[in-house]
Amino acid sequence: MNETILPDDHARATLVGRVFDPACGGPCLVHVQGDRLVDVTEAGPTLSMLLAHDDPAARLAALPGHRSWPLNEILDQQRLLAPCDLQPIKACGVTFADSMIERVIEERAGGDPARAATLRAHLTQAVGETLSSLRPGSPEAARAKQVLIAEGLWSQYLEVGIGPDAEVFTKAPVLSAVGHGAAIGVLRQSAWNNPEPEVVLAVNARGRIQGATLGNDVNLRDIEGRSALLLGRAKDNNASCAIGPILRLLDADFTLDDISGLDLTLSVDGAEDAFSMTGHSTMRRISRDPEALVAQTIGDHHQYPDGFMLFLGTLFAPTQDRGEIGSGFTHKPGDRVEIACPRLGRLINHVTHSEAALPWSFGIGSLMRNFAARGLLGDARVP
């Protein structure tokens, strides 16, 4: 059995995902049971509908399943889809003090990686320790803001990093995320970019966190660094959002407290060169509580009828030079990127250019037509 993508404690975990089935030309919901993926499409048929239940783990347990596929077969055929469907994909930025400094560096460098090392040394010495101890939105943070403004060090990234309002943006459209084993894309024009290993929450329409998985918020540092108004250009491109490998539902063995203590590791191995890089991120150092980030995303001010997926941000910000000194890190085609967490499994992708990635063609209309042809729309039971 290929267990490498599953959580270490997968035998006790409630794991659900999506598989492309060539026989019906569309996605099926699957429940991981041992070394097999059991078809539980009748629980949905969309994952967003399954998560609308008060207890989706209990809903899955009540379904016997009528057919299944070996996990190895699905992985070999690259048929494991991102574990989300009708949910918009949102993301929070600048939620860790260390990566907050890197966003300020991008801004001040104007997207030029050659200036980053000098700026990093200056800013870390000037504000690094101060920022890491502040609680966002607190009176202490407000006082620090005034001091930093007086010293000419204030930034729009510090505003969302320690101010009352979090940065929450739309990372990718519905159904556009790629899953485990798929290529991830960066624009050809980008010369300074990086992976962002993150925990991704699955939240239903009532704002209830129902599970968590891994995500790669692929980031184009040079484009965002030129202007924050280019965030969409830097963040939302073909294959620029990877989620997976599988969604772990909350249950007695996996709670919100467990999510707050998750540790992530990252490895990047080059195919064009002998480059290798490792990194880590830990939810223990996040500046804002995950439930608070959810509350800033959904509420009286904004509803999500099909729920949403929420990237929680990352501690990781690569500074390791890949080429000449001071050039920093950037992706090259063929890079193997692995994001791993003992409780969530392993998400593995290879880098290509967004322009060369498999075009995104299966949207909401395609999904509805496929469901209609399979007779699933009339059978859907939405709580």
Description:
The chain is α+β, with helices and mostly antiparallel strands and 383 residues long. The protein is 26% helix and 26% strand. It is built from twelve helices and 18 strands. The strands form three sheets. Strands 1, 2, 3, 4, 5, 6, 7, 10, 11, 13 and 16 form an eleven-stranded mixed sheet that branches. A five-stranded mixed sheet has the order 8-18-17-14-15, with no helix packed on it. The protein has a two-stranded antiparallel sheet with strand order 9-12. A hairpin with a 3-residue loop joins β17 and β18. α4 packs antiparallel against α5. The longest helix has 17 residues, at 116-132.
Give the gist of this structure.
With 383 residues, the protein is α+β, with helices and mostly antiparallel strands. Helix content is 26%, strand content 26%. The protein contains twelve helices and 18 strands.
SSE diagram, text form:
Elements: E1 15-21, E2 26-33, E3 36-39, H1 47-51, H2 56-61, E4 68-70, H3 71-76, E5 80-81, E6 89-93, H4 97-109, H5 116-132, H6 139-150, H7 156-162, E7 167-172, E8 183-186, E9 193-194, E10 197-203, E11 209-217, E12 219-220, H8 221-226, H9 231-235, E13 241-249, H10 256-260, E14 263-269, E15 276-282, H11 290-297, E16 308-311, E17 336-341, E18 345-353, H12 364-373
Parallel strand pairs: 6-16, 8-18
Antiparallel strand pairs: 1-2, 1-5, 1-13, 2-3, 3-4, 6-7, 9-12, 10-11, 10-16, 11-13, 14-15, 14-17, 17-18
